[in-house]
Write a structure and sequence with these properties.
The complex is a heterodimer of chains A (166) and B (463).
Chain A: H1 3-24, H2 28-48, H3 52-77, H4 89-112, H5 129-138, H6 141-162
Helix pairs in contact in A: 1-2, 2-3
Chain B: H1 2-20, H2 26-48, H3 65-92, H4 96-115, H5 119-137, H6 144-174, H7 194-210, H8 219-226, H9 229-235, H10 238-253, H11 259-282, H12 287-302, H13 304-308, H14 311-337, H15 349-352, H16 354-368, H17 374-388, H18 394-419, H19 434-452, H20 455-461
Classes of the chains: A mainly alpha (166), B mainly alpha (463).
């Protein structure tokens, strides 16, 4: 067993354990902290797949920005046991059934995939910053530019919604 | 290309119009000017086949007479929408320029949804269409129902976007050489590979959500009812048909050869949409909510294009886009002016405002699908496409039955306008100007003209 395979197994165990802890922990703040660990584990997987850029972006954007946002929201909402809405048993059942069937379908798809390369160190350069930049600004320059319209409209929306009206 | 670039640029122009111009009515005229320019530019591109802008798009966008005709319909409907209701956009809130800017960005997304060639562009197009709508839904900040609708729409929309991304990821992984291009997804007529099948299913769910097809329609009545009426008019017409256009193009180019494998799913969605939309609309007292359910019901009819997926279906889709947009924009323009949105509020309208009542009757007849209106032609083409499809003839019969049910709730409004006495002696409508009436008459005439001569719209497809 090579060191990379060992790292893969360790990271996978860490990801799954943290994900389970995230769902089962009672306090929402703890949930978020576990989720951050999940993101770190997944970033480790990206490094194993030779995708450094994705790994760094995953940590900066997800573990950094978005999770901090989550934490703020949860803390501001002041979630306690007494403010929790009454859980509907039937809804829970429906959720379990529909989510479970989706999981089943996804699992069956993943099982069918023949080639499996969980670890790809030093193979290909698709995940490196340089090749990513070349692709982004050459082949994919159109979607890159057009997404500016998307961000512009989101910014206008934030201003409209946030501005105080007298 | 003309439409995409001009609408995006004009969105920025509209954004700054609020900063530099203090007058409140200037944005309205600027918006009408901008949409007219975009419409004409798109018409020139449709006519000559050449865009003003030469951009290397790497094959990610493709224009042909079919999708340019659709963009022309979308821009034309927006032009009519602006001419009818731009004054009511002004009354919604303080940020008039920004509202128009968002509408222009939506149109940019509509044009992308019409011309995309890769799943990536589809995703960006759908998002550019959706995000401004979340904001427009919540633009009436003092109204609690508007806030609720915006939050509901935003959350549900985010989930459907997530599902869509997951579907795209599966398809990307499932194609032989990992490609976003929808023409590369085709996997022959054999059994669908599992990864592609899952991706297709997830995409079907999210697109059904965007066009509010049952059982993913639950957000529609609340959002359409809670949003300011003038924006409901926009999002239930132009944006919705653009969603359909993207839906049909995606499933035609990407999964067309496997049509028989997913046709059964579409049948289920179609029948459920027709059933829920039509039956629930019957029980509504508020005309605005009734129109929300009727838009679900009309979506059921548009889904027949996916069921048939042949040349007639494509023609029907163009006709349906035009007919449904024109009639719904018209009826909403009348509804905005009403003091009372319930059916009781329409009682005796024919005596007070004969022009409004007459044009509203034309719009409602077109939505029902009465001959001589474009609504009849579009339903006729859709049903013909479904018949030509050859199999599952019973779907056509069910669709016709539901069209008959829809007559009930549309005619109830007509009956209230013409044959009922008003409950109290106050004015039923406000802010009616003569240009508004003239515009309504023009829209009604257009509906009848296209109903008599639908080839005018379809002809452009083969231009």
């Amino acid at each position: 067993m090579s060191i990379t395979t060992l790292a893969f197994i360790l990271l996978s165990v860490m990801a799954v354990t943290c994900a389970i802890m995230m769902i089962t922990s009672k306090s929402p703040v703890n949930s978020i902290l576990w989720l951050i660990l999940v993101f770190f584990a997944i970033s480790g997987h990206y490094v194993l797949l030779n995708a450094q850029f994705l790994a760094i972006v995953n940590i900066i954007v997800y573990a950094g920005a978005i999770m901090v946002l989550f934490l703020f929201v949860v803390m501001l909402m002041n979630l306690n046991a007494d403010t929790e809405p009454v859980k509907n048993y039937r809804l829970q059942l429906i959720g379990v059934i529909s989510g479970g069937s989706l999981l089943l379908v996804l699992l069956s798809a993943i099982m069918k995939v023949k080639e499996q390369h969980p670890v790809q160190m030093n193979i290909g350069d698709a995940g490196l910053v340089k090749s990513l930049g070349m692709t982004l600004f050459k082949d994919y320059v159109l979607p890159f530019e057009i997404s500016s319209v998307l961000f512009l409209s989101a910014m206008i929306g934030a201003v409209i919604i946030g501005k105080k009206e007298n | 290309m003309n439409a995409i670039i001009l609408t995006a640029i004009w969105g920025v122009v509209m954004m700054f119009s609020g900063v530099f111009v203090k007058s409140k009515s200037v944005p309205k005229y600027l918006a009408i000017l901008g949409i007219a320019i975009a419409f004409i530019a798109n018409g020139i591109e449709l006519n000559s086949g050449n865009s003003w802008f030469t951009i290397n798009v790497h094959g990610m966008l493709a224009t042909n007479s079919f999708n340019l005709t659709f963009i022309a319909i979308a821009l034309g409907s927006t032009l009519i929408y602006f001419l009818l209701s731009a004054a009511d956009v002004e009354r919604t809130g303080k940020h008039v320029g920004e509202y128009f800017a968002l509408i222009f960005f939506v149109l940019c997304g509509v044009s992308l949804c019409a011309t995309y060639k890769t799943l990536l562009m589809l995703f960006i197009g759908i998002e550019i269409m959706s995000i401004p709508l979340y904001i427009l839904t919540g633009s009436d900040k003092r109204n609690l129902r508007s806030n609720e609708a915006a939050l509901k729409y935003f959350l549900m929309g985010c989930f459907s976007t997530g599902i869509m991304l997951m579907g795209i990821a599966f398809i990307y992984g499932g194609t032989p050489n990992a490609s976003f291009f929808i023409d590369n997804i085709q996997a022959g007529t054999g059994k669908m590979p599992v990864m592609i099948a899952i991706g297709m299913l997830l995409l079907m769910v999210s697109m059904s959500f965007k066009v509010s097809a049952a059982p993913f329609h639950f957000w529609t009545p609340d959002v359409y009812d809670g949003a300011p009426t003038v924006f409901t008019s926009f999002m239930s017409t132009i944006v919705k048909v653009a969603g359909f256009f993207a839906f049909v193009r995606l499933f035609e180019s990407a999964f067309g050869t496997m049509h028989l494998q997913w046709q059964k799913l579409i049948i289920i969605i179609t029948i459920a949409t027709l059933l829920i939309g039509n039956v629930t609309a019957v029980f509504q007292q508020s005309v605005k909510r009734m129109l929300a359910y009727s838009s679900i019901a009309q979506a059921g009819f548009m889904l027949l294009a996916l069921f048939a997926l042949n040349d007639k279906a494509r023609e029907g889709l163009l006709l349906y886009s035009a007919g449904y947009s024109l009639a719904t924009v018209g009826i909403f323009a009348v509804l905005i002016k009403m003091e009372d949105y319930t059916i009781d509020g329409f009682k005796g309208l024919a005596k007070q405002q004969p022009v409004l009542a007459l044009t509203a009757t034309v719009f409602l007849l077109s939505l029902t699908g009465i001959p001589l209106t474009i609504g009849f032609q579009s339903k006729f083409y859709m049903l013909m496409a479904a018949v030509e499809n050859g199999s599952n003839f019973w779907v056509v019969i069910v669709a016709v039955l539901f069209a008959a049910i829809s007559a009930y709730y549309y005619f109830r409004v007509i009956q209230a306008m013409y044959f009922k006495e008003p409950t109290q002696e106050t004015l039923l409508v406000s802010n009616i100007s003569t240009p508004f009436k003239i515009m309504l008459v023009i829209v009604a005439v257009l509906i009848i003209a296209f109903g008599i001569y639908p080839e005018f719209i379809i002809g452009w497809k083969y231009h």
